[in-house]
Amino acid sequence: MVETGDKIDTSFTLKVIQDGEEKEVQFSELLTRPTIVSVYMRNNTSGCDKQNRSLSEHSEWFDDKGYNLVALSKDTCGSHKNYAEKLDINYTLASDPDYKFASATDSIVEKKMYGKTFDAPTRSAYIIDTDGTVLGIINKINTKAHAEELKELVESL
User: Fold this and answer.
1) pLDDT by residue (tens digit) across 94-103?
2) Contact 155, 65 (CB under 8 A)
């Protein structure tokens, strides 16, 4: 797993929803300033909704501090567009069905659900500088207080 101070490969492409529009971008294009990437599993699930509501309620604080916000899951951009409207999300939602970001951060782990085993990204958050350097990591997100834990991390940098 990637650690603070490591530099990740930012040359992969993702589809994103930004300002209600679907675009395909190179990940590095999202790093116009230090960027928080919050990884979640699926739109419209209890924990993920709490995670994104927390971010949405505090998104202005992160913007005022000079950080971009990106929430990333394997959902399609069509799903993300509806999700952004439902939760009043004004930050970037990224679609990553091929786990390109998780590969770049070496954060794919084995999970078990309903007796099935599968590989998937960890529910983590990363603060990444404009050059791809990892400035901070939260390895296990508290879905209810996600924004608060990110604020603490931002203030500690």
Assistant:
1) 999 999 999 9
2) no
Residue 129's closest CA among 4, 35, 65?
35
Q: Quote the DSSP letter at residue 96.
A: -
Evaluated on CA atoms 14, 143, 66, 21, the torsion sign reads positive
Helices 77-87 & 46-64 angle (0-180, nearest 10)? 70
Q: Is the dihedral of CA 10, 16, 19, 22 positive or negative?
A: positive
Q: Report the alpha-carbon distance of residue 138 to residue 75 in Å, rounded.
A: 22
Give, as one character, the DSSP assignment of residue 41: S
User: pLDDT tens for residues 44-95?
Assistant: 988 888 999 999 999 999 999 999 999 999 999 999 999 999 999 999 999 9
CA atoms within 13 A on the CB side of 74: 13
Residue 115, pLDDT > 90, answer no
Query: Could you give the 3-state DSSP secondary structure of residue 26?
Result: strand
CA distance linking residue 75 with residue 16, whole number of Å: 10
